[in-house]
From TrEMBL:
Name used for this protein in its record: dCTP pyrophosphatase 1-like
Biased composition (Polar residues): 146-156
Native source organism of the sequence: Chlorella sorokiniana
UniProt lineage: Eukaryota, Viridiplantae, Chlorophyta, core chlorophytes, Trebouxiophyceae
Region annotated Disordered, chain positions: 1-22, 142-178
Listed GO biological process terms: nucleoside triphosphate catabolic process
GO molecular function: nucleoside triphosphate diphosphatase activity
């Protein structure tokens, strides 16, 4: 449900929609209420997928290559849900109930193939995700990148320049003292 619908209003249309589309979007976290996702863990999904594949004798087909190709296909199907719709605001206002259900099903397909792929690769997905979050926090320091969508190399180059400026000023001070 969109934020303006949650407040009792209708989704914007006409000029209001054009103004909304061109305005800088607020974060989804600020627009949408926190909704619980349920208590299912990645481990529970992994176990259910293992059982599902075993019951059907599909394990021999679930090689990393086959699973990643299936994952890409499902990601494409998810992308089709948004194709030709322009920028879609958080909460998917303007999507019908059937379209929202379809998005949910495609998201689930992507997640399930990702979990199965990580299992086939011997990668602990939750641990890998936590590690990647820590690396991204180091690559994108909040104080340097807040409000910017620049690639991390822009921040590392900025830091190198600042470090170089500090090194240069220290060298200049040493030269002045000599």
């Amino acid at each position: 449900m969109a934020s303006d619908q949650a407040a009792g209003g209708q989704p914007p249309d006409g000029e209001a929609a054009a103004a909304t589309a061109t305005a800088a979007p607020a974060s989804c976290e600020a627009l949408l209420p926190h909704q619980p996702w349920g208590d299912t863990s990645l481990q529970q999904l992994r176990s259910a997928l293992q059982q599902f594949a075993t019951e059907r004798d599909w394990g021999r087909y679930h090689t990393p290559r086959n699973l990643v190709l299936a994952l890409v296909g499902e990601a494409g199907e998810l992308a089709e849900c948004f194709q030709w719709k322009g920028e879609v605001p958080c909460g998917l206002p303007g999507f019908s109930d059937a379209e929202r259900q379809h998005v949910g099903e495609e998201l689930a397909d992507v997640l399930l193939y990702l979990v199965r792929l990580s299992d086939a690769c011997g990668i602990a997905l939750a641990a890998a995700a936590e590690s990647k979050l820590r690396k991204n926090a180091a690559k994108y320091p909040a104080e340097q990148c807040r409000g910017s969508s620049a690639k991390y190399t822009a921040y590392s180059q900025q830091q190198q320049q600042e470090d170089g400026d500090q090194t240069g000023s220290a060298e200049q001070q040493q030269q002045q003292q000599s």
